[in-house]
């Protein structure tokens, strides 16, 4: 009997992995989550899940039947999850961040130890370039046929409160759930390669020998420009990303930064890695994403896109990290610097001394010439 285990019950889990597992024909699909209301709802509704999918011209739905759910915070459920982990053929983690690996590693390890030689594919979807390695390190043990795989999830999604589901005629996650899941139709999820991965059952996953170039294209291309457009939208009192379609100058600004700043740098850095990293390939990638970012059926809020500025202004994240890549390849991040200046003012205020103090705390020590150069570009863009 084939078993799929999903850990985390957000829209990435449902819209990619549970749906992919259902389409792949697993005999048993299980999800683990600590949200008591979701556990109660899914059990009350006999494991029947519905997700909303935003196509370019309408909302569609997909159903996933017969999903079991267990809460690892409940002792009896935890015992069952350990046994399920032992027999699972494929596992997907889709947690809010890699720091939560510390919570799941002990019971996964106990499960794996029950069948140490079983072949397992573990997909890590925490939006971290080394999530797979970190989970492997957290679990440890001697499980030679357990393969930890990184992913590149270039799929936009969101959790929709029940009241908004009713207003927008969206389906809730289960008939009695207090929320719905909305994901975009795009479903080309990249995973790293390992021995035997061609025999996976989960649908919608595409193998790349080296994921790093694609991870950078997502973070320093997709995520960076999404954030840049969100910041400009906020400055212009725009509430939802799809409303940017009425502001062609802002879209063109985003396209300029995408192709002539991020794109030029990434194509130079990763030349020869894939067709994506050519002038034609990256332009098509950018143009497709700029349409997807303003999909009216996603109704993506600008506040959501612009949240968590401290993290997003981090040294390696989508704003500063992209500027660094552009500079490192010999180009000037003019529009990216303008976006960084908007975010910086919001986080630290407008005084140069306070901005410097803020970044000295936020960015890694020691302070180098590169730090000074990036800071200067931000300050000169104010």
Please describe what this structure looks like.
The protein is of the alpha/beta class. It folds into 2 domains: 3-209, 3-Layer(aba) Sandwich (Rossmann fold); 213-379, N-(1-d-carboxylethyl)-l-norvaline Dehydrogenase, domain 2 (Orthogonal Bundle), CATH 1.10.1040.10. The protein is 47% helix and 16% strand. The protein is built from 15 helices and 12 strands. The protein has helices spanning 11-24, 36-44, 75-87, 101-114, 131-139, 162-168, 212-235, 248-269, 279-293, 302-305, 309-312, 320-328, 334-348, 352-362, 369-379, and strands at residues 3-7, 28-32, 49-54, 59-64, 67-70, 90-93, 120-124, 146-152, 157-161, 179-184, 189-192, 205-208. It has an 8-stranded mixed beta sheet with strand order 5-2-1-6-7-8-11-12. Helix 5 links the parallel strand 7 (120-124) and strand 8 (146-152). Helix 7 (212-235) crosses helix 13 (334-348), helix 8 (248-269) packs antiparallel against helix 9 (279-293) and helix 8 (248-269) packs across helix 12. The longest helix is centred in the middle third of the chain and has 24 residues, at 212-235. The radius of gyration is 22 Å and the shape is globular. The protein starts with a strand and ends with a helix. The model has no long low-confidence stretch (mean pLDDT 97).
Based on the model shown, name its key terms:
single chain, 382 residues, alpha/beta, Rossmann fold, N-(1-d-carboxylethyl)-l-norvaline Dehydrogenase, domain 2, 2 domains, 12 strands
Short overview:
The chain is an alpha/beta fold and 382 residues long.
